[in-house]
Amino acid sequence: MPAIVLIGAQWGDEGKGKVTDMIGGGVDYVVRYSGGNNAGHTVVTPDGQKFALHLMPSGALWPNAAIVIGNGVVVDPKVLLAEIDGLAERGVDVSRLMISGDAHLIMPHHRALDRVVERYLGSSRIGTTGRGIGPAYGDKVARMGIRVQDLLDPGILRKKLEIVLRERNQVLFKVYNRKEIDVDAVVEEYLTYAERLRPYITDTRAVLWKGLEEGRTVLLEGAQATMLDMDHGTYPFVTSSNPTAGGACVGAGIPPTAINRVIGVTKAYTTRVGSGPFPTELFDDNGVHLRKVGREYGTTTGRERRTGWYDAVVARYATRLNGITDLVVTKLDVLSGLETVPLCVAYEIDGKRTDDMPLTQTEFHHATPIYEELPGWWEDISGAREFSELPANAQRYVERIEELAGTRVSIVGVGPGRDENVVRHSLL
Ligand code: GDP
Ligand code: IMO
Ligand code: MG
Predict the structure, then answer these.
(1) Within this chain, do residues 354 and 237 fall inside the same structural domain, yes or no?
(2) What main location does UniProt list (predicted)?
(3) What would the pLDDT profile of 78-115 be if each residue is shown by its tens digit?
């Protein structure tokens, strides 16, 4: 019963879409299990076409794999339908998509509240994607959420919306001085989505159980990342779900015993979008260099990504937390042409060295990286496919990451394309 979990091991945008697509041809199901359209997963197919996927699992570009949106995802139906249509226009058939009836819906009041709360937070804002993610998960936990299955019952949809808007409209109007949201208009809008989404709605967990029982391979595609996890990340500067490997079981409805491999994706350096602590962040020319060469602009919001050196403390934490069996280090090509490549091996916090995540967020805010300077390389490595084809110093850098993270590096990314990888160990 092989299930594989693929997670981001940093702060997002590690290249999860690329790696999912890379192995998507060899699996039977690709499942999104958490987050929503705050995610932006880029896939570049061998014919050079670039796709930015937000809700659609990155297995969509292969004709064989079934694609599943699990119960742990929050679904903005308008965005999903636009994505389905956009893919169809480009000749990608996603009629095999399955959506869990238990997934929660992003509603107009979620988007409105996400934006207005951020504005009121001012300099304390999270820097969310503004897609309504936090408020949607908030309603879910408060047991006021509206689920995909509610689209199939107009009476229930209206009733639930009336209940939640009775309270949320007061907040929008009285606290934030915003217009109240009209129940009738929302019901009407969402019933048009219901008509189109109906064929895709199913009991996805039963589908996955059957697949696993038949010995099929299920790939659980994480969105966001370990350090954005609500419980294990840099709270409160996190997303509102559990992107870590444990979240895959909950968000897809499969048992932990089904998982036999956990792929952790990291960049060869670090990026972060939005607010929050980031010990290895660079504010100098090196940071600008990484942003420019790595094209570090958000897939979802177009925002500049913050950039910094590789943080092995984070890598080690992510390895232990997720049980990573295979690391993928993407974008090694971006580091070509540097005299030396600093690697953060530990932190200094209030004069003391620590090799692990500190206990408190305050300490993490005060963490100063302790760097090991590794010699760089000048060669263009984008054509390398075997580890031995990488310059000796690039090999050393990868091996050092492996040592520090405490797990093997199975794939090294040397370009955005599906085949632009050095494969050391197969992921399937
Ligand atoms: P995700 O959210 O984890 O799927 O990552 P994003 O798609 O948001 O950001 C990763 C970016 O890096 C995308 O533009 C990818 O096309 C690109 N990318 C992925 N792997 C590589 C690599 O090995 N080299 C280079 N140069 N770009 C890569
Ligand atoms: P992928 O899947 C990078 C960040 C936001 C913000 C915080 C909370 O492409 O790696 P939210 O809208 O989720 O409430 O925002 O999380 N964030 C991401 N950063 N990649 C993502 O997804 C992200 N999804 C959310 O920038 O700091
Ligand atoms: Mg992304």
Answers:
(1) yes
(2) cytoplasm
(3) 999 999 999 999 999 999 999 999 999 999 999 999 99
Q: Is the CB of 157 under 6 A from ligand 2?
A: no
Residue 125's CB: how many other CB atoms inside 10 A? 14
Count Cα neighbours of 342 within 13 Å in the Cβ-side half-sphere: 15
Amino acid identity of residue 340, one-letter, is T
Atom of ligand 2 lying closest to residue 303 CA:
26
Pull the structure tokens for residue 339. Answer: 């005299």
What atom in ligand 1 is closest to the CA of residue 58? 4
Could you say which ligand is closest to the alpha carbon of residue 296?
A: 1
Closest Cα to residue 37, out of 204, 241, 199, 232? Answer: 241
In a domain? residue 99: no
41 catalytically annotated: yes
Residue 140: active-site member: yes
Catalytic position from the list 41, 54, 109, 267: 41
pLDDT digits (tens, 9 = 90+) for 238-272: 999 999 999 999 999 999 999 999 999 999 999 99
CB 42 less than 6 A from any atom of ligand 1: yes
- Cβ proximity of 31 and 68 under 8 Å: yes
The reply to whether 98 falls in a domain is no
Q: Is the CB of 15 under 6 A from ligand 1?
A: yes
| Residue 304 token pair | 């500049």
Question: Within 10 A of 268 (CB to CB), how many other CB atoms are there?
Answer: 25
**Mean pLDDT across 320-328:** 98
What is the CA angle 99-104-106, rounded to 5?
A: 110
> How far, in Å, CA of 271 to CA of 121, rounded?
23
Give the predicted TM-score (pTM) of the model: 0.98
Co-location of 177 and 216 in the same domain: no
Of 199, 222, 241, which marks where a domain is finished? Answer: 199
> Residue 80: which H helix or E strand, with range?
helix 77-89
211 lies in the same domain as 194: no
The parent domain of residue 113 ranges over 104-199
The domain spanning residue 188 has which CATH number?
A: 1.10.300.10
Residue 63 sits in the same domain as residue 127: no
